[in-house]
């Protein structure tokens, strides 16, 4: 894997052995999958829906009845009968179809939750890593400012420049130290957010490894559209349409009343004269008023709603995916331009201005301007990388893939 290690981050890439990365993005994602409570809740809900599906497949229980009329010595009777309910009209099959659709919807909810969690972890990881780079960059710029102020102080002692130059250098150095404090605060906040997603303490994270270079993330727009059409949110909307259609079939099957088959034995008469008679019969409700018409109409309207929501979801996911892809491509272009054209020139100008100042050819205002341009260029490069990672996380969340590399 290619990592980001351009000249502006040379000090970071040459870190001492004790500061080598101890947490990678893959490690962070695995920790989140194992410890995130929201993901565990979705998994438990999916298991509960599967259990409900098992219940839907069961046959209804029969009923055992015992009837007694009067005393046997006086000619009374007693009967034992078994009532076996029957479900005509394919009710059981329709009920099982509804349960299967619900299980698929719950499984897709889990997939969406996992994709959302992984995208959030990736975004938090990238934010923390970039904040880590900002801290190192601030330290590098502060060191450059200290070197410049020391050079200005030496030239003041020799009488070659006004003390005003030294004052300007000290002020610039102090401002860069302030930026270092701000960068450290942002790093602390980013690490706390990442640790919260992983269920870990901030101190357990260690240094963060550099993620993949933006150069490895080229993705054609046609492939983005293909991935968007099969996104988890779209698949979930499709499953909800199937669940709605299964519900309509179930409600239509409910129009046919259940039949109860009755079998049993009846004894009547006094003493030894008791007569045994077999019982067989049917129990059938008469659908005179309630033919389940309201429930059928409600199920049909909900199925129509699910179809409309499917179309809306397809349009929304495609639009958001293409927007994220456009932001990702723009960030890639900006990062490449800054890295290849802006950074080399800004660095050369800063180094040349400093050498010229030490040789007495430039005043400190020119040095300060060149150093500020150099620092801004480095910050611009990090912002472009940040925009890229943010767009990448948004796209991954939509299409349900953790890393853009996995899409190829």
Automatic annotation (TrEMBL):
It comes from the Bacteria. InterPro entries: MdtP/NodT-like (IPR010131), OMP_efflux (IPR003423). GO terms for molecular function: efflux transmembrane transporter activity. Residues 1-19 form the signal peptide. Keywords: Signal. The keyword Cytoplasm does not apply. Belongs to the outer membrane factor (OMF) (TC 1.B.17) family. This is Cobalt-zinc-cadmium resistance protein. It comes from Massilia eburnea.
């Amino acid at each position: 894997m290619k990592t980001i290690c351009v000249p502006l981050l040379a000090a970071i890439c040459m870190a001492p052995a004790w500061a080598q990365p101890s947490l990678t993005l893959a490690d962070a994602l695995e920790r989140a999958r194992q410890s995130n409570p929201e993901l565990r809740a979705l998994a438990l809900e999916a298991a509960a829906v599967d259990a409900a599906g098992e219940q839907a497949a069961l046959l209804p229980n029969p009923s055992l009845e015992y009837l007694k009329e009067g005393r046997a010595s006086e000619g009374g009777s007693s009967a034992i009968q078994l009532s076996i309910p029957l479900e005509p009209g394919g009710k059981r099959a329709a009920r099982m179809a509804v349960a299967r659709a619900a299980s698929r919807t719950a499984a897709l909810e889990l997939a969406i939750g996992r994709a959302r969690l992984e995208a959030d972890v990736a975004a938090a990881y990238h934010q923390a890593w970039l904040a880590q780079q900002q801290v190192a960059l601030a330290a590098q710029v502060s060191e450059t400012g200290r070197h410049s102020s020391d050079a200005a102080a030496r030239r003041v002692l020799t009488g070659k420049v006004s003390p005003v130059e030294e004052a300007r250098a000290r002020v610039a150095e102090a401002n860069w130290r302030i930026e270092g404090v701000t960068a450290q605060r942002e790093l602390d906040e980013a690490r706390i957010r990442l640790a919260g997603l992983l269920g870990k303490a901030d101190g357990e994270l260690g240094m963060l490894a550099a993620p993949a270079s933006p150069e490895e993330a080229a993705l054609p727009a046609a492939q983005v559209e293909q991935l968007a059409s099969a996104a988890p949110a779209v698949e979930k909307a499709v499953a909800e349409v199937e669940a709605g259609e299964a519900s309509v079939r179930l409600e239509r099957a409910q129009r046919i009343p259940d039949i109860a088959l009755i079998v049993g034995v009846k004894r009547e008469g006094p003493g030894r004269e008791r007569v045994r008679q077999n019982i067989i019969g049917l129990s059938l409700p008469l659908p005179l008023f309630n033919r389940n018409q309201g429930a059928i109409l409600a199920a049909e309207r909900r199925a129509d709603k699910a179809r409309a929501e499917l179309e809306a979801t397809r349009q929304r996911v495609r639009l958001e995916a293409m927007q994220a892809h456009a932001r990702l491509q723009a960030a890639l272009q900006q990062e490449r331009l800054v890295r290849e054209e802006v950074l080399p020139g800004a660095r050369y100008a800063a180094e040349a201005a400093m050498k010229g100042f030490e040789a007495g050819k430039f005043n400190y205002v020119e040095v300060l301007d060149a150093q500020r341009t150099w620092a801004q260029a480095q910050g611009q490069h990090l912002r472009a990388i940040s925009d890229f990672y943010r767009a990448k996380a948004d796209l991954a969340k939509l299409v349900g893939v953790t890393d853009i590399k996995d899409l190829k």
